[in-house]
Design goal:
Blueprint: E1 3-5, E2 12-17, E3 21-28, E4 32-39, H1 41-84, H2 89-96, H3 99-115, H4 120-124, H5 134-140, H6 144-172, H7 177-185, H8 187-211
Antiparallel strand pairs: 1-2, 2-3, 3-4
Helix pairs in contact: 1-3, 1-6, 1-7, 3-6, 6-7, 6-8, 7-8
Length: 212
Amino acid sequence: MIEKQQRHGEKGSRHVLALGSTRSNDWSFAGGLRITIRPNVRTFHLHRKNYGVHASWLANSQIASSVFTLGTAAVLPFYTLMVVAPKAELTKKSMESSIPYVVLGLLYGYLLYLSWTPDTLRQMFASQYWLPELPGIAKLFSSEMTLASAWIHLLAVDLFAARQVFQDGLENEIETRHSVSLCLFFCPIGIVTHVITKALSKSSRNAEQRLH
C-alpha cells in the first residue's frame, strides 16, 4: 500500500512508500520533472533491533526455566534416599559424593554469568555503607535469570545442610528423616528440628543410663 500526500498550490508532491523509502517529485519550468528516492534505513534497523531484543529475552527465559527444573530434579533423588533408606549403603555412598555440589555449582555459575549486568553490584550494595538494601535486592530479583540462579544457590546450600544433618544422625544414632525433609524447602527449620531432636535423644539416653 502506498500512502500519498499532496499539497495543492506547491511545486511538488511527496509519496511515502510502504517498503521504507520516500519518493519526491519536484517540477520546475527550467529543469522539468526530477524524481528522488531515499531509502528509510532507520526504520528497518529499528525493527531488527527490537526483534533481536525480543529473541534474546525469550532465549534467556527458556534457559532460566530449564535450569530451574533441572536443578530441582537433580537433588530430589538424594533427599529420597535419605528419607526412604537412610541406613542403606547406596545412600551413605551417595551422600559422601561431591558430584551433586559440583553440578549445582556449575549451573549456578552459568546462570550468574548470564544474569550479570554492570548494575548488579550497585543494586546489591546500594547503601552508602556498601550494605545490601531490600529495594535493591527486590529490583535485582525481578529478572527470571537472577531468580533461577538464586534457586540453584538455595538447592546447593540446602542439600549440603541436609547432608550434614543426615551424617550427624548416623554418627549419633538419631532419627533425621523429618529434619532432612524440612531441609528441602525450609532449611533453617530443618536444622532447628535436628538440634532439638538431638538434645531430646541425648536427654532420653542419659535418663535411661541413670535408671540402669
